Every structure is written in structure tokens, then in C-alpha cells.
Structure of Peroxisomal trans-2-enoyl-CoA reductase isoform X1:
Amino acid sequence: MASTLKLHGRIDFLVNNGGGQFSSPANMMSAKGWKAVIDTNLNGTFLCCREAYNAWMKDHGGVIVNIIADMWKGFPGMAHTGAARAAVDNLTKSLAIEWAHSGVRINSVAPGTIISKTAMENYKEYGPTLFKMSVPFSPAKRLGVPEEISPAVCFLLSPAANYITGATLKVDAGQSLYHSIWEIPEHDAWPEAPEGENTDVLREIMDKTKSKL
Ligand SMILES: CCCCCCCCC/C=C/C(=O)SCCNC(=O)CCNC(=O)[C@H](O)C(C)(C)COP(=O)(O)OP(=O)(O)OC[C@H]1O[C@@H](n2cnc3c(N)ncnc32)[C@H](O)[C@@H]1OP(=O)(O)O
Ligand SMILES: NC(=O)C1=CN([C@@H]2O[C@H](COP(=O)(O)OP(=O)(O)OC[C@H]3O[C@@H](n4cnc5c(N)ncnc54)[C@H](OP(=O)(O)O)[C@@H]3O)[C@@H](O)[C@H]2O)C=CC1
């Protein structure tokens, strides 16, 4: 922030876009790996917001946009980033209220699955598979590209969004309303439903369906 102020003399906009994660089942995540992702996506965003505010926006106003993710149904396989991005969604709301009196607007953008060379390379040899397997889960039946996210960010930064703060704009072609990519294996580990006539009906329809298969 100090070097930006030195160079340009002002900070009108802050976009917290830097971030990322690795894929891992939650039970296999080390404390260090969990912390690295929380640090990058949540703590980093908070600290950049705080510094931009204290260094400039407190006295001059400004606009902040935080990039989060499609974590609305949880984020199985990337639980750390889901938790961090949900926290940023909430942080956005808190700061929108705390900093309104300074003329600061702050919003988030929640992209769906967005393909780029650099994003894919983070996942090494699994990158192409990971991104390709996401395609059927987009109502658009294709992935988005960064050029479809940046217009939303520019809109929120612009005077066209002067009356918008504390909001999260989903730019995901409806992905967050559609299927989860996470497969739950067949299992019989769930606790039994309580005995009674409704459970009898449940057993009956399940038995009937089974016998037809
Ligand atoms: C499935 C659902 C499909 C879902 C469908 C697919 C949807 C894709 C959506 C994609 C969204 C995107 O965000 S696209 C891509 C966006 N960009 C990125 O993801 C950036 C890539 N990653 C990073 O920036 C970083 O590596 C990040 C993970 C945040 C941590 O950075 P740091 O430099 O702070 O930390 P590092 O030193 O790298 O790692 C710290 C520890 O983290 C753990 N760690 C790091 N990488 C690890 C790895 N690959 N596997 C296990 N553990 C790892 C280890 O414990 C490390 O410690 P040691 O063991 O001691 O080393
Ligand atoms: N692609 C997607 O499907 C989605 C992406 N997002 C999020 O959008 C943002 C942009 O990602 P995208 O362009 O796709 O992927 P990229 O990997 O191309 O971009 C990630 C950027 O974050 C920077 N970064 C990562 N870790 C840190 C860190 N600890 N400190 C500072 N900068 C860091 C990287 O810097 P460097 O190049 O120096 O490593 C890089 O510029 C990220 O927050 C990502 O998680 C959210 C939802 C979906």
C-alpha cells in the first residue's frame, strides 16, 4: 500500500484476487496446509482491506472487490478454501457497514469454475482432468474464462454500482444452483429412521423399486 501511494498518490480501488488452494479430502489435510490456505485467502484479504482503509480509504473513500468462490453448497474436496471464502463473504458484509461512513463500498464476486492456463497449471498433471470434469456441472455446459469475470469486477468498481455494497455477485452461469461435483458413494452408514408407519412406507417403496431393478 505504501509503495502504491508513493507511486500514484492515491488508492481508489482494491481487488483481492490473489488466492488459491490444493485439492484434498478434509481428513487428509495437515494443520499446516489448512493454515496456508486460510492465511492466503482469508487473512490476506483482511489485511489488504485493513491496510488500504487505514492508508487511504478511511479519509478519501474507495471501492473494494473480493474474489471468492462457488462454496454455497460447501466445498467438498477443498474444505479449507470453502471455509475461507465463506468467511470473506461475511467479512465483506461487516466492512460494508463499518466503513460506510468513510464512503467505502465493498463487495465480492463469486466465480464458477473458470479456466485459464495459469489456473490449470496449479494442479499439475491433474489440472486438465479437474477442469474438464467440471464441465457437465455448469448449466452453461462449458467453463467460464477470466474475461467473463473481469466485467463484473469493473462494474462493481464503477460508479454504475454506486448504490451497491456488502453484496456478493455470483458469476457462475448458475453453477451454484446446480449439481455438486462431489460423488457420495452408496452406503448404509446413516442412522435408521425411527420405526413407525412412515418408515414402513419408505421400506415398502424401496423394496418395490429394488424388485423392479
Ligand atoms: C476436488 C474438488 C474438485 C472441484 C472442481 C474443480 C474446481 C476448481 C476451482 C478452481 C479454483 C481456483 O482457485 S483455480 C487456481 C487458483 N490458484 C491456486 O490454486 C494457487 C495455487 N496454490 C497456492 O497458491 C499455494 O500453494 C497455497 C495452497 C495457497 C499455499 O501457499 P503457500 O506458499 O503459503 O504454502 P506452501 O508452502 O505451498 O504449502 C504449505 C503447506 O500446504 C500443504 N500443501 C500445499 N500444496 C499441497 C498439495 N498439492 N497437496 C497437499 N498439501 C499441500 C502442505 O502441508 C504444505 O506444507 P509442506 O508439506 O511443508 O510443503
Ligand atoms: N479459476 C477458478 O475456477 C476460480 C478461481 N477463483 C479464485 O480467483 C482468483 C484468481 O485465480 P485464477 O486467476 O483462476 O488462478 P491463478 O492461479 O492464475 O491466479 C492466482 C493468483 O493468486 C496469486 N497468489 C496465490 N497465492 C498467493 C499468495 N499467498 N500471496 C499473493 N498472491 C498469491 C498468484 O500469484 P503468483 O502467480 O505470483 O503465484 C496468482 O496471481 C484466486 O483467488 C482463485 O482462487 C475462485 C473461483 C474459481
About this structure: The longest strand covers residues 104-111. Residues 80 and 153 are 24 Å apart (CA to CA). The chain is about 45% helix and 10% strand.
